[in-house]
Amino acid sequence: RIGDERGQREMYELLVSFAKWLESTPWGVLVRTSLWAYPFTQLIHFTGLSIWIGTNLALDLRLIGVGKHRETAAELADDLFAWNWSGFCIVMQGGFLLFSSTASTFLVNIAFRWKLGFFVPLAILWHIIVQQKAQSWGKTEGTPVVAKLAGLTEIGLWICVIWQAVQIPNH
């Protein structure tokens, strides 16, 4: 037990050191101190988030059976693939810059910990599974019940991510 506690403390101290280093980088200082850099970085982050979540939602809703049925879920997944992962890259870039500005304060924020430590990895993993399975689930007009449940689950996971993000300023 004592060794476990010491190991956890050392890991936390390592994370704090990394956070302080990020805050001292030129991009961390710029985003934190500039009048325009923080709002611009938020704009980048939210633009990517809109693309990422929008394309996720389009596929999930198609799997659930909501919307026009101009193409199968498999075709929609293929059509949105590049947009989807481009949005993800933009989100990550903006999020990393925002985190870099005040990383040490984010480390102690329980909402941030839940968001990045649990919900985001789980939602991304689930999204990858849904995206891959959509190729077989969505070859025809009708989608199986498991596909509908998977789409609904993904929507729920992203709502949890957004909820935690909204809670960050409150903690």
List the topology elements.
Blueprint: H1 2-24, H2 26-33, H3 37-64, H4 73-101, H5 103-107, H6 110-137, H7 145-167
Helix pairs in contact: 2-4, 3-4, 3-6, 3-7, 4-6, 6-7
Question: What structural class results from the helix and strand content?
Answer: mainly alpha
Please describe the biggest sheet, giving its number of strands, its sense, and whether it closes into a barrel. Answer: none
SSE string, helices as H and strands as E: HHHHHHH
Number of strands: 0
Helix-residue proportion: over 70%
Content of β-strand: under 5%
Overall mean confidence score, pLDDT:
93
**pLDDT under 50 segments (min length 5)?**
none
Instruction: Work out the helix count.
Output: 7
Q: In angstroms, what is the radius of gyration?
A: 19 Å
The N- and C-terminal alpha carbons lie at a distance of 30 Å
Overview of the structural elements:
It is a single chain. The protein is mainly α and 171 residues long. 84% of the residues lie in helices and 0% in strands. It has helices at 2-24, 26-33, 37-64, 73-101, 103-107, 110-137, 145-167. The model has no long low-confidence stretch (mean pLDDT 93).
